[in-house]
Design brief:
This protein is an alpha+beta fold. The protein is built from 13 helices and 20 strands. Helix 1 packs parallel to helix 10. The structure holds P-hydroxybenzoic acid.
Length: 390
């Protein structure tokens, strides 16, 4: 089998790149380990930067996002029993975010690839990117027990944090930077009316909490939890009771509870691998970097990699200009690190750190006081939240 771009990973990054390239007449094949149903069953983030939404439209897959996604022009931070509004639109001169679930967006991308005969091969095993530093890289894999080979000009490693792509890079050619946080997020999805039309991030002495949503009938809530407990330790009742304790009274009194339709604990981690290129393989999204979910940057950071890769591929195939490919890692990482900084800062600002000294606690309170009293600090938060320019 032969194609121009071999993409490892059929999540949103790989599919979006494949769809964008298809619109420009550039051929790709997407290899995905799991079934389509499995990929769509993963509950992930739901906040899209305005630049990411534009990229979806450019790929011709923005219609459902625009019809069913909700434009959010602000959110609240609850602290000390008070709610502080972050007016994203006012603070950024008109920008906002769209709340639209990753599963919905991925389904739209699958539908688009299917409609145009795009090659997405599910259920592949033993995937291995090969000959990465040659002009003829290829990917070997097994499908239904049969060994196959995909020859390509370039390989994209968009197969997530645990994928094979990053691991195919020799250890001495890649540097990893990591911070692991001493807690996780317990998340619940429930078919209840969201407690607030906008997101509420809550800093409380019992720990962080977040009220989010997928639609006006589907709520997504999170609480900070110690990693010593498992999801089985949390009954729905225990979850709702703890969430209520961490929200201001005017919010908790309005909270509609119900059975969870999904419940899971995610650890919080910051991670970056540099560079994001090895020979003719380019890494994108979680394969190269992970953020804690606090700033809603994960999917957005992946989309920014795809933006740079897409334009680099266009310049290569349409103009014979390889500058974008040469600069990809440097450009992508500059923006990735800004997303890392913002996610780390939001995480440090809003969580309880069990081992923290009195000095650090004072600094955290001061950071919050400064934020709520300074228009410049609020502007900085807002411009990062809606997404920095590509
Ligand atoms: C979510 O809705 O899943 C969500 C929203 C905002 C975040 C993290 C997660 O910062």
């Amino acid at each position: 089998m032969k194609t121009q771009i071999g993409i490892i990973g059929g999540g949103p990054s790989g599919l979006l790149l494949s769809q964008l390239l298809h619109k420009q007449g550039i051929d790709s094949v997407v290899l995905e380990k799991h079934s389509r149903a499995y990929v769509l069953g993963r509950i992930r983030a739901g906040v899209l930067e305005h630049g990411f939404a534009d990229l979806m439209r450019e790929a011709g897959v923005g219609a459902r996002m625009d019809a069913e996604g909700e434009v959010h022009t602000g959110f609240d931070i609850a602290y000390d029993g008070m709610r502080h509004h972050v007016d994203l639109k006012g603070l950024t001169g008109g920008n906002s975010v769209i709340v639209y679930g990753q599963a919905d967006l991925t389904r739209d991308l699958y539908d688009a690839r299917e409609k145009t005969g795009g090659a997405v091969i599910h259920g592949v095993e033993n995937v291995q990117p090969c000959d990465l530093t040659s002009d003829n890289p290829f990917i070997t894999f097994e499908k239904d027990g049969e060994k196959q080979r995909l020859d390509c000009d370039y390989i994209i490693g968009a197969d997530g944090f645990h994928g094979v792509s990053r691991k195919a890079i020799p250890r001495d050619k890649i540097k990893e930077f990591e911070r692991v946080y001493p807690f996780g997020w317990l998340g619940v999805l429930s078919e209840t009316k969201p407690v607030s039309p906008e997101l509420i991030y809550a800093k409380h002495e019992r720990g962080f909490a977040l009220c989010s949503l997928r639609s006006q009938m589907l709520s997504r809530y999170y609480i900070q939890v110690p990693l010593s407990k498992t999801v089985q330790d949390w009954s729905d009742d225990a979850f709702w009771a703890e969430l209520k304790k961490r929200l201001p009274e005017d919010v908790s009194s309005q909270l509609e509870t119900g059975p969870s339709i999904e419940k899971s604990i995610a650890p919080l981690r910051s991670f970056v691998a540099e560079p994001m290129r090895y020979g003719n393989m380019f890494l994108a999204g979680d394969a190269a970097h992970i953020v804690p979910p606090t700033g809603a940057r994960g999917l957005n950071s992946a989309a920014s990699d795809i933006y740079y890769l897409y334009h680099a591929m266009l310049d290569h195939y349409k103009k014979g200009d390889d500058a974008g490919l040469e600069n990809y890692s440097q450009k992508a990482l500059a923006r990735v690190w800004k997303g890392q900084r913002f996610s780390w800062w939001m995480t440090m600002l809003l969580h309880n750190f069990p081992e923290t000294s009195g000095f650090d606690r004072k600094l955290q309170q001061t950071d919050l006081d400064y934020l709520f009293s300074s228009d410049s600090a609020m502007k900085s938060l807002a411009e990062n939240y809606v997404g920095l320019p590509f």
